[in-house]
Amino acid sequence: MHDNAVNDTSIWSRGMMAVTGAQFLSAFGDNALLFATLAVLKQQFYPDWSQPVLQMVFVGAYILFAPFVGQIADSFAKGRVMMFANSLKLMGAAIICFGFNPFVGYTLVGVGAAAYSPAKYGILGELTTGDRLVKANGLMESSTIAAILLGSMAGGVLADWHILAALSVCVLVYAGAVVANLFIPKLAPARPGQSWRFTPMTRSFFTACRTLWHNGETRFSLVGTSLFWGAGVTLRFLLVLWVPVALGITDNATPTYLNAMVAVGIVVGAGAAAKLVTLKTVARCMPAGILIGVGVLFFAMQTALLPSYMLLVLIGIMGGFFVVPLNALLQERGKHSVGAGNAIAVQNLGENTAMLLMLGLYSLAVKTGASIVGIGIGFGAVFALAIAGLWIWQVRQK
C-alpha cells in the first residue's frame, strides 16, 4: 500500500470510496433482507405481532455484543473487521435463503451488524479529519440512505415477484460487500494490545458509558440519537401494518415505497444540516426533532397515498436535519475522551436499547389489538413531547 493512499485524507480518496461502497452494499442487503424476511413470515402465517420481534432479535444481538465490538474495532485494522462482519451477515442471509428458521438467520445478521458499526464509523476518523469529518459522515449517511431506499424497494418488489429470488439477491449483495472491503487500505489498529479478558473488556466499556453519559454534550447527543433511531425503526414496522388498514393496499411493495420516502427526506435534511449547522450551533437541530413527532401524528390520520408520501418526505427531512449534527458532535467529543470506536459502541447500546423498548411496546400494542391508526397518533405525540423535553433540559443544563 503506497503512503499517499493512506495519507490522502480527502473525502474522495480511494479508501473513503471503498468504505462508502462496502457500506452501501451492506446496508442494501440489510434492508432488502428485512422486507424479504417479512414476506417469508407472511407466507408462513406467523402472527402480526411477530414482525417487530424479527427486528428485536437483530437489535438484541447489538445490545449483547455492545461491550466488545468497540474494542474489536480499535484492536484490528478496521477494514478487516468490516470484512469479517459482512461475512457473518452473508451466512445469516444464506440460512434464511435455504429455508431454515428466519429468526435464527436474522439474529446472525444482527451479530454481523453489531461488529460492523463501530468499525465503519471509526474508520472515518482514521481516513479523514477535522471539518472533513462532518462531510465524510454526510457521505456515509447518504450512501446508507441510498442503500435503505433501493434495498427496501428491491426487497419488497422482489418478494412480491418471488421470495426465494429476493433472498438470493440479498446473499449476492452481502458477497459484494465482502469483496468491496478488500479495497480498503490496511490501516494500523487504533488501540492494539488491550486485554481480551471478559472483566477488563466490560469494565472499559462501562467506563466509556459513564464518561459519555456524565458529559452534558455527549449525553444530549446520545439521548437525541437514541430517540430518533428508536422512533425510525418503529415507524418502519408501523407502515407495514398501517398501509393495509389506512390505504387498503395489501402488497409487499407499498410499505417499502413509503419507507423510501423517509429515506429521500433524510438525504435532503442531512445535506441541509451539513450546510447550516456546525458543532457550535448543534441546538439548531432541536425544532426539527419536535416536528418529526408532529409529522408522524398527522401522517397516521391519512387515507390517501399522495399526502402520505409528502408527509413522509417531510418527516425524513426533519430527521436528517436532526440526527446528523448530533452524530458528528458525539464522534468529535468521543474521539478525544474514550476513542471513536468506544463512543460509537456506547451510542449503539443507547440506540438499540431505545429500539428494543419502542419495538417491544409497539409489538405489545399490536398484540392487545389496539387500532394501528391510534398507535401511530399516540407514537407521534409522545415523540414530539420527548424531544421538547430533551431541548428544555439541554437549555437548563447550559
Automatic annotation (TrEMBL):
NCBIfam families linked to this entry: PRK11195.1
Native organism: Buttiauxella noackiae ATCC 51607
Domain of life, source organism: Bacteria
Transmembrane spans: 20-41, 53-73, 93-117, 163-184, 220-245, 257-278, 285-303, 309-330, 342-365, 371-393
HAMAP family, per database record: MFS_LplT
Pfam families associated with the record: MFS_1 (PF07690)
Keyword Nucleotide-binding among UniProt keywords: no
Function field: Catalyzes the facilitated diffusion of 2-acyl-glycero-3-phosphoethanolamine (2-acyl-GPE) into the cell.
Protein name: Lysophospholipid transporter LplT
GO annotations of cellular component type: plasma membrane
